Amino acid sequence: MHREINPPDEIIRRLFFVFYLMVVVVFLVATLLGLVQQRYDYLLLAFAGGMVVIVIRRFGKRYLEFERLAASFPCGGEEDAPPPELCREVEQLLAEASSVAEDWQHRQVIRNRLIILLDQNPELWQWFRQEIAAVFPALAHWVGKGKAKK
After folding, report:
1. Cα distance between residue 91 and residue 105, in whole Å
2. Which of 8, 20, 41, 44 is the most buried (most CB within 10 A)?
C-alpha cells in the first residue's frame, strides 16, 4: 500500500530542525575561527549564534518534537509509524470492506470500527489516507482532527 512518507506538518518540523542544525554548525565554526584567529567579530557572531541555538532548541523541544526528530533524522524512524498490529487491523478492515461491497450492513460495521480507530489514533489517517478514500469516499473529507461523521 502507498504511504505518505512525510505529511506537510512533519516537513515543516524537519525544515526547522535542519535550520537548527545549520545554526549549530555556524555557531561551532565561528567559535573555532574566532578562537584560532583571535577575531572578535567571529566571537561576537558565535555568541549571537549560541543565543539563537538556545532559543531554537527550547522552542523545538517544546513545540516541534526535536528529540524525536533527532532520533529519526533524516528519513524517519520506526517510532514515527503507528504500531504494526494497528496497521494490520486497518489493512484487514479495508480489505474486508472491499470484498463485501454488496453487503451494506457489514460495510457499515466496518466503517464504524474504522472511524473509532481513526478517532483514537489520528496518525493512521496520514498513513492510510488514499486507501480509506478509495474504499470509503465519504471519509475522504475528514482530515484526522476531531470526530469523523458517522
Report:
1. 19
2. 20
